[in-house]
Amino acid sequence: MTTPLTQEVLLDELGITCAIKAMAQAIMDKPSPHPLAIVGLLSQGDIIAKRLATEIQSLGGDALCASIDISLYRDDIYKLEAKPSLRSSNLPFSTDDMRVVIVDDVLYTGRTIRAALNAIFDYGRPACIELACLIDRGGREVPIQPDYVGYVMEKPKAKILVSLKEADGKDVVTLCNN
After folding, report:
1. pTM summary value
2. pLDDT at position 87, please?
3. Nearest CA to 19 among 166, 169, 168, 162?
């Protein structure tokens, strides 16, 4: 007998907005002499990156915004049954000597970010790279930690669903238990 799937709202629309505002403020509070680039990972990190860049600009900061597809950089690409669909990256500038903040929706094992680091270096040699994620799920397999995080999970094995207005029509982060 299987137990029914239950969902618990972790962040509603206001919670997501507050988390993004707090991350933007934290990025602004860290001084750097280098130009700032906010680079979101397709397909949810790019939406959060745009929101972060907009919030940084509303705080008086200056940030370039871009998105990258890391599908071909994955270490498990040849093991996947379904081949990943390739999407177009939009990083129209060199990352040379920039402060790059990689943005993802959920950080779990760290393997996606490892792939993102490889992709970023194809666009130049940044002065520094930082990581922002809306949800830190825990459960790392590689030594990667976020610099800016909206919400830290207490249950790393739980499944997280992130819905954003731009893609899904609503802003909500839910925890799925089964």
Report:
1. 0.89
2. 59
3. 162
